[in-house]
Backbone:
């Protein structure tokens, strides 16, 4: 059994201040000299970037839908190894989760019911972690705040252990809210005043990623840490975190997940896109590639004019190429090299932003041209949600008929939306509306994001396709 002091930051609804409090709390505790392990419920890529700045450790996601219920505690312990305390930021409202999860072959949604599956409450229960409820009190008086807190404490199985009041307007407002919550027997662990100066800029997919505004993001995280340190009882927060019992799960190990796959005659070099335009990725995916025998190296399509020497495979994850379309297009040498690399049937795995980088044009700007004749444009609506995908073609990572759990998160569309036969086939299907994505030779590109801890064979297959010859 492993004991890790931990707590989950939840809220009644989105926009209540979870990210402000969670990131600020991480920074404040790290400022005390503690080793803080940061985590995020759900598939979101952006908040973990700020968590990483606050703690100096990789931000990691905990998502029962993407990886399974059984892996949540194990992945948590893997990420929290060596930490003094772990802070888990929730998602949406505390009991808001995935719906419609009874997809064929994926099993029942779990004990909390379809609407609660993969919610903050679900993950808090799987981690047996106390919950700190962040309440936006900007438009409520004391007793209404208490009634809200009482409802969340008495609903479901998650244990609410304390409250942080957010966006208070005055000393009198704070006193009313504190007194009302005290009647419930719950501690008020902090009280934050309105703090517009600590806001983080947003755009069409949420917060602007930290990697795009490094210096400003560092300053923003420092301000959040100072705000929480001055507004919260950190000793009481730590005391609550230490009430979390030991976990019986075994820490996840990427080497065990790809057992028997690391005995290679050589380690093929796999280049993973990074930099401001490609900021989305799960830390475990690269850890699995490494455990499966690859040498993982980074490159930045905005700045590097060639792939790393000796590259045998390319991974291009998510991000915001639409924001950097002109700069990406201007890097002609790299676009040509990646185009030639893919057209030679060498392995290229692309998700979402990677798909956009491989098309012929993105909002009129020439891209790599791997997907000849495919054009991408911005769309009026955000496409967002979990996907129960089925592979409809063999590729370097999947076999026809295999089922995987993923998600979509984009505000662009491609025309056509999928391969329609030779030379390109479709990659996946997850609804009656039709297939999605593109497969040809060694290239697979689609809008589907995958957390490889839930399907570790993806890494093994990609490494094998890159020439990882077994001993």
Residues:
């Amino acid at each position: 059994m492993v004991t890790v002091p931990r707590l989950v930051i939840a809220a009644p609804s989105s926009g209540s201040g979870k990210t402000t409090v969670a990131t600020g709390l991480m920074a404040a505790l790290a400022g005390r000299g503690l080793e803080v392990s940061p985590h995020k419920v759900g598939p979101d890529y952006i908040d973990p970037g700020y968590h990483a700045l606050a703690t100096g450790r990789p931000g990691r996601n905990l998502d029962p839908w993407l990886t399974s219920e059984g892996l949540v505690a194990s992945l948590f312990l893997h990420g929290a190894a060596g930490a003094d305390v772990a802070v888990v930021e929730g998602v949406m409202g505390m009991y808001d989760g995935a719906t419609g999860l009874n997809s064929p072959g994926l099993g029942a949604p779990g004990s909390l019911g379809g609407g609660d599956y993969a919610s903050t409450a679900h993950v808090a229960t799987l981690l047996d972690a106390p919950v700190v409820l962040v309440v936006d009190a900007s438009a409520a008086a004391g007793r209404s705040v208490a009634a809200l807190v009482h409802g969340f404490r008495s609903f479901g199985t998650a244990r609410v252990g304390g409250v942080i009041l957010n966006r208070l307007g005055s000393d009198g407002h704070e006193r009313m809210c504190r007194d009302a919550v005290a009647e419930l027997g719950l501690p008020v662990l902090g009280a934050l005043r309105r703090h517009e100066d600590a806001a983080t800029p947003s755009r069409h997919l949420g917060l602007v990623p930290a990697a795009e505004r490094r210096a400003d993001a560092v300053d923003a995280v420092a301000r959040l840490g100072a705000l929480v340190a001055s507004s919260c009882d950190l000793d009481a927060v730590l005391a609550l975190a230490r009430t979390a019992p030991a976990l019986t799960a075994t820490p996840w190990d990427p080497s065990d997940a790809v057992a028997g796959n690391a005995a290679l005659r050589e380690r093929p070099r796999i280049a993973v896109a990074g930099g401001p335009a490609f900021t989305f990725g799960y830390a475990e995916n690269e850890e699995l590639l490494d455990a499966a025998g690859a040498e993982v190296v980074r490159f930045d399509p905005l700045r590097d004019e060639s792939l790393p020497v000796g590259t045998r495979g390319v991974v291009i994850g998510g991000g915001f190429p639409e924001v950097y379309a002109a700069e990406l297009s201007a890097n002609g040498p790299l676009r040509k090299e990646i185009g030639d690399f893919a057209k030679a049937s060498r392995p290229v795995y692309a998700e979402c932003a990677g798909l956009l980088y491989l098309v012929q044009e993105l909002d009129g700007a020439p891209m790599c041209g791997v997907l000849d004749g495919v054009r991408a444009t911005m769309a009026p609506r955000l496409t967002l949600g979990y996907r129960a995908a089925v592979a409809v073609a063999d590729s370097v990572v999947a076999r026809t008929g295999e089922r995987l759990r993923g998600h979509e998160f984009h505000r662009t569309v491609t025309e056509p939306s999928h391969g329609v036969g030779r030379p390109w086939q479709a990659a996946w299907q997850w609804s009656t509306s039709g297939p999605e994505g593109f497969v040809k030779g060694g290239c697979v590109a689609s809008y589907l994001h995958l957390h490889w801890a839930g399907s570790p064979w993806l890494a093994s297959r990609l490494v094998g396709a890159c020439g990882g010859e077994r001993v």
